[in-house]
Amino acid sequence: MTTPSEDFRPTFSTNRPQSTVADAINALLAGMRTTLAAPPPVSIATAYFNPAGFGLLADELEQAGQVRLLLGADPDQTRPRIRPLAVGSGRRGERQQIKRVLEGHLRRLEEDRDLIGFTIEADAAARRLVDWLHSGRVEVRRYETGFLHGKAFVVDGSLPGVIAGSSNFTYAGLAVNKELNLGQYDPATVREVREWYEEMWRAAAPFDLSALYESRWLPHSPWEVFLRMLYELYGAEVEQEQRARSSSRLKLTAFQSDGVWRAQRILDRLNGVIVADEVGLGKTFIAGEILHETVIANRQKALVIAPATLRDSTWDPFLRERNLRADVISFEELATGLPTAGRAGAVLQDPDEYALVVVDEAHALRNAATKRAEALRALLTGAVPKRVVLLTATPVNNSLIDLYNLISYFVTNDAAFAESGVPSLRRYFDRAMAMSPDDLSPKHLFDVLDKVAVRRTRRFVRHHYVGDRVAINGVVRHITFPTPKVRRVDYDLDKALPGLFDRLATALGAHVNHSDRIEDGGSAVLLDAPGEVLTLARYVPSRFRRGGDEEQYEQQNAGLLRSALLKRFESSAYAFQRTLDKMIDGHEAFLFALNHGVVLTGDALREWISSDGDDLDDFLSSLNAADDNNVRNAGEFDAAALGAAVRADLFLLVSFRDEVQDHQAGPDPKVDMLVEELAVIAEEAAAEGITPQQTRDKRKTLVFSYYSDTVDHIHMRLLAAVETDPRLACYRDRIATASGPDRSGRAEVIAGFSPRTAGGGVEEDRYDLIITTDVLAEGVNLQQARHIVNYDLPWNPMRLVQRHGRIDRIGSDHGAVFLRCFFPDEQLERLLGLEERLQRKLKQASAATGVGDVLPGFTGHDVNLTETREEIDRLRHEDATLFETGGASALSGEEYRRRLQAELRHSFVRQAVLQLPWGSGSGFVQISSTQPGLIFCARIGDHPRPWFRYVPLGAGLEATVDEQGRPIVVSDTLACLAAADPGGQQVPAALTEDVYRAAFSAWTHARQDILTSWMRNADPANLQQPVPKVMREAADLVRRHGAYLGAQQDDLVSRLQAPYSPRILRAVRDGLAHPGAARQRVDHLAELADRLGLIRQPSPEPLPTITEDDIRLVCWLATVPGQLTC
């Protein structure tokens, strides 16, 4: 023992730049240790404790004698001074308060633990703390019978002392806060403090502080870590659903009720929702529940918009049976009836009377350029906000822009999702399409789609709603679906029209030596071999305009026409001939007009987005009308060259038409194969059916074609076949068609074909075979039937999914349904190859001009050939995956929500997931993977949503880098969740020390990427959307000549000066070209802004500035190939 010095015993301590409370305590402990023969014991009392505070004193505490650490809870400073009567009085009330405060104290300790950070240094510091707690020289207790407000550091031994005051054993208390602490070394005073401490210590309970920190390094199950990721993303929503769920008013199934709850939640937030459940899952019932709340509970008016067929056969009886009052109109009535809305006898009331608008088969509105789309936008625009429910099983048909157009009906602010890291919705979609232009899967759009859409599949319902029951025709039964089975039907296309396909391929440009590279561009008019190759000059007259370039929309028209000719040729010779007839008429009308000094120019295919539908006929006819909008003076063109090209095409078209006509009277090998398949169907039904009704149901068949001309052709041939072929005798007088505009006749056919499921249950069962276009592919319940025949090549697989949904529905009595697909087997690859070439030409039309959409709302190709060819190949192998899955990736997080909800029902799983410390991680083996990776789930301050990042690793467990040497960090939420999903609780943890250490480095990259992304949206300059030139010009016109508008002038300028879709840009460009004085053009722009529903675009609020310290790691998972676990 040495002579004591007074210098190491401070009497006053606070936190200042030159000295801190930690310095004073360290001086005291060091002085005692070096002065005395043995380090004295130390007793500490504190309300709060954290590892950073321990780090300030660690060097001395590790060398001290026995250490006692007494924790306790401060009194609740937030409790009201006036006692709430609901809180017990006396001892009972005090016990309640103590319990509540102790729970808060534990949460605070856990929060301090969670904030230690995820670095090698922080990890080492936390492990040092745990080693100290396990050293055998430390005991920890917590005072739990009352409040502990005192803070003291007491040193026993021959030189007793105490530093007491306001400082907790935390980093802030020992180094940052404005604290006040006094040192006392008078033996009597120190003795009294020790007696107080001993009293509190005896009353305290052992507390395992080390376990609190060790829990971070326990061998966590990868499934529990993944569930914690899901909880961060969906936990609040799932918990709210459990509390807020109410019973269904329409007695829906459990999965339908869940869909209603999700849809209502999205509606409350956005005033709109896309219900994208797979066909046959009852979207009508979900909409019905929402309608019930609107018209019954809220006593508001509602409007239902649907295809005419569904208006009559589905919605009218559905609403009538449930006593729900709502106006129901067709798409056509919407487009034509809006101008007279609110007048006596009109089909529409004043649009502002409607609180809810339901649109069934909403994918019919995916093209923003159609009149029906403009009508819906006008309907939704008004003084009264309207909620809109869009029902569609196939929100993506031709491109991802379909989804954008649907969302834009209710999300009018481009920056609506800025808080979720999406400052511009349009740019978000553009980025997704740029990442994979030929991919129709919306996986790169997960972050937005999960907020706007409800999407469930049959597979989802089967897995998550086992035992769910539904009442069908008054009988309660378990929900089941028939098993889809694909049957391939091969036919020889060349047998019906020998050699014609080769000549048609030549005519469509298959052998023209033009580069297929998109960037090379090229003309849509093929002048290489007039008379052998169709120039299509009649549809691209701008190619011959003096001093002008080809019009974009005309280039697109030409490409779509080539594709349409190919598809109709494959469908039937009759459909091909009918199209040739219309084109011949058009060419003759064009040449007649040209001879009289005018050129018919036409317009873009505004109402026609696909080359596999009947709308083409209307378009071809419209081009022949010589109205003021589609004629030009022939003097503006090289009329001689234009006329020569059109005459060459007319000659070629006539030759094709004549050759096809010569073969019409002969046999049709494709129809002959259909006859054979129907004979097999009839034979199987006779063998399997027990009753006459069962036999009828088992032979009921829908034959689908894209084209009404083909429907007519099949019908004519089958009527003859059933009269002469005894195998088809059961179909005599039981064949009908459904393809034209006759709505009442179509409804009668539907009810006569499937009276039990599509009629009222009292109609006569009149038909066993319907030949139809896709007018019956949407919305009608035809599950009384067992067979579908897809007569044409499935150019768009989503059409097949829609058709399949007519018979694969809840309530089907069939154990399996059969889907036959016709393939021109010998010519299939050549057909697909030619179509792919034509589609590349369509892309050229867009890329060559470099100004985006060629047709308004159309992004350059009809269907995705890469994806289509994969689906076609699976169908050729009779693989039913397309029909099992619905043909699309999940559009929302329903699968993840249900998995989380199911697991949280188990109390032990719930506890493990919610008590997982921040920074916890695990790993698992991905058998199919050859590359390791790390997935991180992080929080930023108190921001409500988590942030996910995936860092793929190289062979040496270093972050992979791109061409510029920058670490690759994947920010797509769905990609992160997919990579992190171990599949179930049975997957064991697999995490090596090397992978664990690699996680620290990978987290550095992930955190920096999160910071960069956040700060990009924190800079107001990055949030300003560029205003297109045409909108700037329109706003400038209103500024210069719109003073007479008064206060409305500034409002109109604000509405115009914003980024809009190409559809609106084109309309405004036309408005600027409106004839008349400047004032008339301003009036026209004002009317246009009202009609298009242009609104002020609020500037997105920048995110608050953050630093790396605001980004905290919640949990992480490592995925490792098998060889890295050895």
From TrEMBL:
<dbReference type="InterPro" id="IPR001736">
    <property type="entry name" value="PLipase_D/transphosphatidylase"/>
</dbReference>
<feature type="domain" description="Helicase C-terminal">
    <location>
        <begin position="673"/>
        <end position="855"/>
    </location>
</feature>
<dbReference type="InterPro" id="IPR000330">
    <property type="entry name" value="SNF2_N"/>
</dbReference>
<dbReference type="InterPro" id="IPR049730">
    <property type="entry name" value="SNF2/RAD54-like_C"/>
</dbReference>
<dbReference type="InterPro" id="IPR001650">
    <property type="entry name" value="Helicase_C-like"/>
</dbReference>
<feature type="domain" description="PLD phosphodiesterase">
    <location>
        <begin position="144"/>
        <end position="173"/>
    </location>
</feature>
<dbReference type="GO" id="GO:0031297">
    <property type="term" value="P:replication fork processing"/>
</dbReference>
<dbReference type="GO" id="GO:0005524">
    <property type="term" value="F:ATP binding"/>
</dbReference>
<dbReference type="Pfam" id="PF13091">
    <property type="entry name" value="PLDc_2"/>
</dbReference>
<dbReference type="InterPro" id="IPR014001">
    <property type="entry name" value="Helicase_ATP-bd"/>
</dbReference>
<protein>
    <submittedName>
        <fullName>SNF2 family N-terminal domain-containing protein</fullName>
    </submittedName>
</protein>
<dbReference type="GO" id="GO:0006281">
    <property type="term" value="P:DNA repair"/>
</dbReference>
<dbReference type="InterPro" id="IPR038718">
    <property type="entry name" value="SNF2-like_sf"/>
</dbReference>
<dbReference type="Pfam" id="PF00271">
    <property type="entry name" value="Helicase_C"/>
</dbReference>
<feature type="domain" description="Helicase ATP-binding">
    <location>
        <begin position="264"/>
        <end position="413"/>
    </location>
</feature>
<dbReference type="Pfam" id="PF00176">
    <property type="entry name" value="SNF2-rel_dom"/>
</dbReference>
<dbReference type="InterPro" id="IPR027417">
    <property type="entry name" value="P-loop_NTPase"/>
</dbReference>
<dbReference type="GO" id="GO:0016787">
    <property type="term" value="F:hydrolase activity"/>
</dbReference>
<dbReference type="InterPro" id="IPR025202">
    <property type="entry name" value="PLD-like_dom"/>
</dbReference>
<dbReference type="GO" id="GO:0006793">
    <property type="term" value="P:phosphorus metabolic process"/>
</dbReference>
<keyword id="KW-0378">Hydrolase</keyword>
